[in-house]
Specification:
Layout lengths: L1 H18 L32 E2 L1 H11 L9 H4 L4 H22 L4 E2 L3 H9 L5 H11 E3 L5 E3 L14 E10 L2 E12 L7 E14 L2 E9 L1
Parallel strand pairs: 1-2
Antiparallel strand pairs: 2-4, 3-4, 5-6, 6-7, 7-8
Helix pairs in contact: 1-2, 2-4, 2-5, 5-6
Length: 220
């Protein structure tokens, strides 16, 4: 098991070093280039690929990612002046969630008990039902009670791709808050013919005591 810990740690550290620790430095302006997730350099020939990721491995990944996670969501974020500060918080969460999913995807298989550790960490930011939905989007249970990785699109790329026209609209309805993040993404694939794409993401926040939890994420 010690060798597995070392392998997971080395994999994460290599990922961080190859992208310059971008997740630890959130973009301070919506017109800058997209922040790259720290897990973006995982190679398909990783030595972890054919094994099963244990609960201990998942806990290690979670602890190593803690430095890149946002604080809990509270009124200090929602009531901050200016849309950029709010966007930075949601963008940091998107990057952290994407990194968590991609790193726990690395082996292709996940120990059944490891699901609880992932769900518990997601529950810091999402309502339990949303955490389950996120997990089930990327993992499916096999006949032995473990989980297999599902090849699919990355988590919530929309908010991090905003380059201009950023707006964060917040509407409070009792204990529920509706957040809508909109803006423009520039497609630089063809420098001679820059394309503009609309970004429009909406979700609800449920308040419990002093904190808010995300649910009902929709990409329009």
């Amino acid at each position: 098991m010690k060798k597995t810990y070392i392998s997971v740690a080395l994999l994460l550290c290599m990922s961080i070093s190859m992208v310059g620790c971008d997740s630890s430095q959130p973009v301070t302006s919506p017109v800058k280039e997209e922040v790259k997730p720290i897990a973006s350099s995982i190679e398909s020939n990783s030595p972890l690929k054919e094994d099963i990721l244990k609960t201990e491995d998942v806990n290690l990944v979670i602890s190593l990612l803690d430095n890149y996670s946002p604080s809990v969501l509270d009124d200090s974020v929602l009531e901050a002046k200016g849309d950029t500060y709010k966007w930075i918080w949601f963008n940091t969460l998107q990057i952290w969630t994407d990194d968590l999913i991609r790193l726990t995807h690395a082996k292709g298989k996940l120990e059944g008990k490891a699901k609880d550790a992932i769900i518990a960490r997601l529950n810091t930011y999402f309502v339990p039902e949303e955490s389950e939905e996120i997990f089930n989007t990327y993992f499916r249970k096999d006949s032995q009670g473990n989980y297999e990785s599902i090849p699919t699109e990355r988590f919530g790329k929309g908010t991090s791709s905003i380059h201009a026209d950023l707006k964060v609209l917040i509407e409070k309805k009792g204990t529920k808050v509706i957040v809508r993040v909109t803006g423009t993404e520039y497609d630089y694939f063809d420098p001679q013919n820059k394309q503009k794409n609309k970004v429009d993401v909406e979700f609800d926040l449920i308040k419990k005591e002093k904190h808010y939890y995300i649910t009902n994420i929709e990409h329009h």
